[in-house]
Design a protein that fits this description.
Layout lengths: L1 H16 L1 H26 L4 E2 L2 E2 H18 L6 H8 L1 H7 L4 H31 L8 H26 L9 H14 L11 H9 L1 H5 L1 H8 L4 H35 L3
Antiparallel strand pairs: 1-2
Helix pairs in contact: 1-6, 2-3, 2-6, 3-6, 6-7, 7-11, 7-12
Length: about 260
């Protein structure tokens, strides 16, 4: 546990050193947040609510998704893949520290640093320009924080799985782009799932992508009843367990492959 916490602390400090990158990321995400909010406002036109999602909720949704891009890093992450190709993975595997746990610590520190320098400022600035929805009770805030913690674990487990493709192919970037493209579509990032056809929205909600982006924001907006919120959290727990187990299995096979190849 000490090694895990130390890894988080070092990664967190490293993230804070990239000041120019953090500022540029904040400005870019904020700009696209305003753009997406404007598109949704135009799309709603004279409608105050579409399929249960109010215009205020839709605008809040746009700000939330933009704020969480850096925290979840759900759409682009090849850090582990690069260590496989430059040979650093060999020393990482020899560390007296679980390989999966090591990368989870690295990514958790990065996520916390990004939340502090980009996610929180983006949402605060967004709130200055729009009338947004906020959780109305401590219980709702607690459910949201728990949901976001689970969302981070799902996001990391999925990205870790995608990066494991590098154990078998000399260039897994194509696989990564396709895999992350799935998350763009099915997570509800581009457009709230409430605006999708009902059958497609339901499929997206059940995927790990919807469980990472859409479900936590639904809890934040208060669009879920107590029973629905509990079901959402249980679905997230299921995906955490399922993806971690798959990660461990594929990692074991990948390490064996590296040994066979003399890696």
């Amino acid at each position: 546990m000490k090694a895990f916490l130390a890894t988080i602390r070092i990664s967190f400090r490293r993230q804070l050193t990239y000041r120019a990158a953090n500022l540029s990321g904040l400005a870019t995400n904020l700009m696209f947040g305003f753009f997406r909010a404007s598109v949704l406002i135009a799309l709603y036109d004279q409608q105050t609510s579409v399929n249960g999602l109010s215009i205020q909720g839709a605008v809040t949704y746009a700000g939330m998704t933009q704020a969480l891009i850096g925290f979840l890093s759900f759409f682009h992450w090849y850090d582990m893949m690069h260590t496989v190709y430059d040979g650093q993975v060999g020393s990482d595997l020899l560390k007296p520290f679980n390989f999966f746990g090591y990368w989870l610590g690295v990514d958790t520190g990065r996520a916390l640093g990004t939340f502090l320098t980009r996610s929180l400022p983006i949402f605060v600035l967004f709130a200055l320009f729009y009338d947004i929805v906020l959780p109305h009770s401590i219980l709702q805030w607690g459910a949201f924080i728990l949901s976001m913690t689970l969302a981070h674990l799902i996001s990391f487990a999925w990205r870790f799985l995608v990066n494991l493709a590098s154990f078998w192919t000399p260039n897994a970037l194509g696989i990564g782009r396709f895999a992350f493209g799935l998350s763009w579509i099915f997570s509800g990032f581009f457009m709230p799932l409430a605006l999708f056809p009902d059958w497609l929205a339901e499929i997206c909600r059940l995927t790990p992508f919807g469980a990472t982006v859409y479900l936590p924001i639904q809890i934040f907006l208060g669009s879920s009843s107590e029973g629905t919120t509990l079901n959402s959290l249980l679905l997230q727990v299921f995906w955490v367990i399922a993806l971690v187990l798959v990660d461990q299995l594929i990692l074991a096979l990948g390490v064996r492959k590296l040994v066979i190849q003399g890696g």
